[in-house]
């Protein structure tokens, strides 16, 4: 099935509602709430959905829309509480499970994300998004080898998904497999050339390859990797010059080049 971003998921909910019940039954407030969400007026969208609940109307779509709105407002507690209410009304729904994992990982709730993913994967083994969130949570908890296995399976369903390539590169970097990290992140950067994070991570990989080759006495190859590290971190800086992480990496890599 098609795997959705949060905004697209809400639009999907709107479409499903249109076919599931007459507009008169739901009331115009829900449709307006979706429109408000789409234009990033999250507080207004919440207000409209809550008015439906006060009127005694209840649907999993309403709670899911509340969850996505609160997530956009960085309110994890209300976001996840409403997602659970949505899942009570439509248990084991694939999109709601996927949305739950998106919320958990965005708010760095790694342990519950792992637990939920381990329940969801047997139900939806072909869903690359669920495996992606599982791999992300595993990598953040230090289970790099298991995370790599999961991201490889996820990539089989979405081979050119830049997020998966980026995560794969980061996991290979954690495992100190710099050549494969280089390959994954180069592929990711070819798809999305405007991501400061990808260029920053690629710079770190080039820096590690520089250090490795320098230790092996391969001076020419080491210098080549160092030049690439400089180029990558410069691109990262041009895209997000305010990032302290990028500033620190840039300072360190530049100092290496000055030696």
From TrEMBL:
Is this entry keyworded Zinc?
Answer: no
The secretion signal range is 1-20
* Any Pfam family: ANAPC3
Q: Does the keyword Repeat apply?
A: yes
The alphabetized UniProt keywords are: Repeat, Signal, TPR repeat
Report the InterPro entries cross-referenced here: TPR-like_helical_dom_sf, TPR_rpt, Ycf3/AcsC/BcsC/TPR_MFPF
Q: What is this protein called?
A: Uncharacterized protein
Q: Which organism is it from?
A: Leptospira kemamanensis
């Amino acid at each position: 099935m098609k795997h959705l971003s949060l905004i697209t998921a809400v639009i999907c909910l709107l479409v499903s509602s249109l076919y599931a019940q007459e507009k008169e039954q739901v009331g115009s407030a829900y449709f307006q709430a979706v429109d408000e969400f789409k234009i990033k007026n999250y507080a207004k969208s919440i207000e409209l959905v809550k008015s439906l609940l006060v009127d005694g109307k209840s649907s999993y779509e309403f709670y899911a829309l509340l969850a996505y709105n609160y997530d956009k407002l960085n309110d994890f507690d209300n976001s996840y509480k409403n997602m659970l209410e949505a899942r009570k009304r439509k248990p084991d729904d694939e999109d709601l499970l996927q949305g739950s994992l998106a919320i958990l990982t965005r708010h760095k709730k790694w342990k519950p994300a792992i637990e939920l993913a381990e329940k969801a994967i047997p139900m939806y083994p072909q869903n690359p998004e669920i495996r992606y969130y599982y791999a992300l949570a595993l990598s953040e908890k230090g289970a790099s080898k298991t995370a790599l296995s999961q991201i490889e399976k996820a990539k089989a369903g979405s081979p050119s998904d830049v997020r998966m390539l980026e995560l794969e590169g980061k996991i290979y970097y954690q495992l100190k497999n710099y050549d494969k990290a280089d390959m994954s992140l180069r592929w990711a950067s070819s798809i999305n050339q405007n991501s400061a994070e990808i260029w920053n991570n690629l710079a770190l990989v080039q820096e590690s390859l520089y250090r490795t080759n320098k230790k092996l006495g391969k001076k020419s190859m080491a210098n080549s990797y160092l030049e690439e590290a400089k180029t990558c971190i410069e691109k990262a800086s041009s895209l997000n010059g305010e990032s302290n992480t990028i500033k620190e990496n840039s300072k360190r890599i530049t100092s290496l080049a000055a030696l």
